[in-house]
Amino acid sequence: MDAIAAEQIAKSWTDAWNNHDVDALMEHYSEDVVFHSPFVKLLNSDQSGVIRGKEALREYFVRGMEAYPHDRFQLHRTGIGVGSIVLNYISVNGMLANEIHVLNDEGKAIEVRCHYSDVV
């Protein structure tokens, strides 16, 4: 993946969040995605912090958008790895966030690991 493609993914992802466009957001994830986030513990009351599958992830994202209706993500940087990207942005409540998206051959996230500057 080159820098232009990575930036396009990051911008599309950020725009979808900020517009609360769940359909556009879900375009970034594979059907069998595995999503790790401390926010899962908070929003889903699930101590594993893990969501499996696109439909369950969709429900989680809707819950997050309802819980934080006025927050907007501010993308700072996009890192490019081997088969992955990292999104560095300001998240809810002003927290610094870094998300690692491991991508399949279609550019869809098959695994996501979220990290925040404050413990959620």
List keywords for this structure.
alpha+beta; 120 residues; 4 helices
Fold blueprint:
Elements: H1 3-18, H2 22-26, E1 29-36, H3 38-44, E2 50-52, H4 54-67, E3 74-80, E4 84-90, E5 96-103, E6 109-116
Parallel strand pairs: 1-6
Antiparallel strand pairs: 1-2, 3-4, 4-5, 5-6
Largest sheet: 6 strands, mixed
Which strand order do you get reading across the main beta sheet?
2-1-6-5-4-3
SSE arrangement, N to C: HHEHEHEEEE
Q: Are there runs of 5+ residues with pLDDT below 50, and where?
A: none
| Strand coverage percent | 25-35%
Summed up, the helix count is 4
Overall geometry: globular
Radius of gyration: 13 Å
- Reported by name, the CATH topology is Nuclear Transport Factor 2, Chain: A
* Total strands: 6
General description of the model:
The protein has 120 residues and is of the alpha+beta class. The chain has a single domain (3-116), classed as Nuclear Transport Factor 2, Chain: A, CATH 3.10.450. Helix content is 35%, strand content 34%. It is built from 4 helices and 6 strands. It has a 6-stranded mixed sheet. The chain is globular and about 35 Å long. The mean pLDDT is 95.
